[in-house]
Amino acid sequence: MTAPSGSVVGLPTGAEMRLTGEGATAVVCVNGGQSGEVEGTWSASLEWLVRRLAPRFQQLVFAEVRYRVKSWRRLEACVEDARAAVTSVGAERALLLGFSMGGAVAISAADEPSVERVLGLAPWIPDRLSLEPLRGKRFDVLHGSFDRWLPGIPGVSPVSSRRGFERALAVGAAGHYQLIPGALHGIALRAHRGRPVPLPRAAAWERRVAAQLAEL
Amino acid sequence: MRYSREIEVDSGVDATFAYLSDFANAAEWDPGIVEARRLTPAPTAVGSRFEVIALFRGRRQRFEYVVTDFEDSQRICLRGEGGKAVSDDVISVAASGHRTRVAYEADLRLKGVYRVAEPFLGSMFERMGDAALDGLVARLSRASG
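ok -> structure tokens follow
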């Protein structure tokens, strides 16, 4: 009984998880969100990265999470969805890869015993968020230097993620913070329900994420 | 690999046993199980069969569970057989004041060449067991609340 790559399974919370590849180490990918309490979607940025990286990292299983509701007003529910994914995937070790609001979700779920590392992509790390789950874990951040560069365009400022990163080091996490010159908020966009289309500097994101996965 | 733990839930003995003995409900409370369904009609009795799909390292593994022993409102024993592993599960329930105590014992044995991986999988098996029973507490507390 082998499902094809990209098979979708339901989680007990009601969220969904899309699996690509198989392996003893999982890369659990959690999406961003918004203020409005809308139904979860598959992230174009994470999907684009998984499609590019899965063929190169055949010893890893990639698990993309589709939350029940993708909203920072329902952050606890998103964290429950992420925890369920980490358990359900059945891997001995896991890296949580969180994009935007998914950064806060990944940090909050990092105390799951199999989680060894968290990688935040333009992570939202609000000042009130407890970073205790990162104690003793590896925590790395990649952020586009042009994120929030134009007023009115949604995103997360690198200044705020840098502040969160410094707080994480103070609670006992270890890792690196890297700015990606010229990169925006996001790696790819979905063109009208179709495949993800890469944004400028997508290749730079891919190279840096690949370098992190090569350490697993 | 053995796993054993006791929990207490708020639901009554009969309701708790009825919920647990329909093993198709396992996908609702055990995050290690992504799909479960009956292969034989209700009610559950010795010989009842269930199909259970669990993930191992991201890949779907099919198990067929057979009820090997059944004492209504007290105890159910199941044997689950998959391509790579066999699991023997014993679930017992008993009244504990106004609550119900659930004892879960599982013994998972990997088959053939997979047996060499057992020492590495022990802690994962333990974690998945804990997650399942935490899920059961949450589920049955919600159902009775």
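The first strand of chain A starts at residue 7 and ends at 10.
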